[in-house]
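Note to self: keep these together.
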Amino acid sequence: MAGSRAAIRYAKAVLSLASDNKVADKVNADMKQIASAIASNSDLSAMLQSPVVRSSDKLSVLKAVYGDANNATTNLINTLITNKRIALLGDVANKYNHLYDALRDTQVAKVTTATPLTKDLEKKVLAKVKELTGKSTEIINTVDESILGGFVLRVGDLQYDASIANKLNKLKREFTLN
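Structure:
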């Protein structure tokens, strides 16, 4: 819990600094890249979490990977290294993305489908989500063939499951209860 509070504080500080310097969107792109890299690369995540790896080595790796990042992002990495909090980098990046979206009054909708979304269907989903929530939305499409058809829409903490697999499971439960 203390790590999460610290990550929020660092994210708020970076967002404030980036907003003042009018580079919040560039830093947001950096933070998305960092969060994605740490989430998808277990070696990078383990290296950042490891107390055995020296801070100077962690800094060298991060500079090699994110050397072209914005100054605010580079300063965040240096501050986290100095304060021995570099293990929080992934959390800080995620918190920054959430705070940035809240500041811009946008949200991320995750749509899981059996096949990739077409541009036309994506526009319809965006329009429907905007109608329901009143906020502009960015869509992340995940393909999962196990849902067979239909879609699963997640916006914030709301979920709408219109998948064929879900409907089949409901029918199965109805038949086994009777």
